[in-house]
Specification:
The protein has 323 residues and is α/β, with parallel strands linked by helices. It has twelve helices and eleven strands. The protein folds into two domains: 86 residues, Rossmann fold (3-Layer(aba) Sandwich), CATH 3.40.50; 149 residues, 3-Layer(aba) Sandwich (Rossmann fold). The strands form three sheets. Strands 1-11-8-7-5-6 form a six-stranded parallel β-sheet. Bound molecules: nicotinamide-adenine-dinucleotide.
Length: 323
């Protein structure tokens, strides 16, 4: 695993909550990967190879895949994209995945989600061999995660654990509350926190009295996809607050509520017609938190960095350099 040093001093301080600087940690993670790739090649291995399968031309999916392949190239991982038309049939998509599965020089396969509605994502994700499943979405890897067996784990929650580890935030015995039960963030986040010996509460859209449940958390992870859902009454005094949410706010009044007097955001809104907001009402929650992630610059950069770590580790195992 990567070195245990904390990345850098946090870039700034909020009123009380000190910022967990995801950008700095992600940079340090990418530097570790670059060093390890160089050592792999120097030791006679080949560079890891990651292939993203992109169906259709949804702009957000294209942007995500583009940032993953660019980040791969920067650390010496050979990244490429297989583009398929939006109308591709399930059979053809499965054939593409099968071809990548059989290619001995492909270490990581990621199928960019969401897929167009006519396609069955679960069957596609199951077609990715677990050893190449760098997103950690295959049922075998999901089972391994919950059984505490080695396997690839989803990048976003794994990146959150790495952020907490590098800031030396203690987890064992602490009460962690996760808001959101998706297969890609909430559930694996809960499993990974259990693995760190937290007592875990997993909340979702049917949770009664969300604020009371959240207030139990010494660590609170918000992954609901609702801008500003988590306010000060959801947060225990001194909690560590991790905001996974990445939401577009396109209503100017809501933007002003969430970011009162924020000139930078106003300018971005004027230019693009929206701003990004987390699930946490940062301005009102930061004074209660001991540590808090900003949006952007918190969890987002960790996801791509952790994907590179996963790809490297899959490659090391497949090339016989790791057990
Ligand atoms: P999702 O829509 O699949 O799941 C959302 C979950 O939140 C559901 O389990 C739902 O029960 C719960 N939820 C919704 N409204 C709620 C409410 N009012 N109260 C309590 N629970 C509620 O979303 P997802 O894919 O897990 O993503 C969640 C957020 O994280 C989104 O904003 C997404 O953009 C963001 N995200 C960020 C990254 C990153 O790299 N930073 C990666 C993945 C997802």
């Amino acid at each position: 695993m990567a070195s245990g040093r904390m990345a850098e001093k946090p870039a700034a301080e909020a009123a009380r909550g000190r910022l967990l600087d995801g950008r700095a940690v992600a940079r340090a993670m990418r530097e570790d990967v670059a060093r390890r790739v160089a050592a792999l090649v120097a030791g006679g291995g080949r560079p890891p190879r990651l292939v993203a399968v992109l169906v259709g031309d949804d702009p957000a999916s294209r942007a995500y895949v583009g940032s993953k392949t660019r980040a791969s190239a920067e650390v010496g991982i050979a990244g490429e994209t297989r583009r398929l038309p939006a109308a591709v049939e399930q059979r053809e998509l499965l054939a593409t995945v099968a071809e990548l599965a059989d290619d001995d020089e492909v270490d990581g396969i990621l199928v960019q989600l969401p897929l167009p509605r006519h396609l069955e994502a679960p069957a596609v994700l199951e077609a990715v061999p677990p050893a190449k499943d760098v997103d950690g979405f295959h049922p075998e890897n999901v089972g391994r995660l919950w059984l505490d067996q080695p396997g690839l784990t989803p990048a976003t929650p794994t990146g959150v654990i790495e952020l907490l580890r590098r800031y030396r935030i203690p987890l064992a015995g602490r009460h962690a509350v996760v808001v959101g039960r998706s297969a890609i963030v909430g559930k694996p986040m809960a499993a990974l926190l259990l693995r760190q010996h937290c007592t875990v509460t997993l909340c979702h859209s049917r949770t009664r009295d969300l604020a009371a449940a959240c207030r139990q958390g010494e660590l609170l992870v918000a992954a609901a996809g609702r801008a500003g859902l988590i306010g000060p009454r959801h947060v225990r005094d001194g909690a560590v607050v991790i905001d996974v949410g990445m939401n577009r706010v396109d209503d100017p009044q809501r933007m002003e509520e969430l970011f009162p007097g924020d000139a930078g955001r106003r300018a971005r809104f004027a230019k693009r017609g929206y701003v990004l907001a987390g699930d946490v009402d940062f301005a009102r929650v930061a004074p209660r938190a001991s540590w808090i992630t900003p949006v952007p610059g918190g969890v987002g950069p960790l996801t791509v960095a952790q994907l590179l770590v996963n790809t490297l580790e899959a490659s090391l195992r497949r090339q016989g350099f790791a057990p």
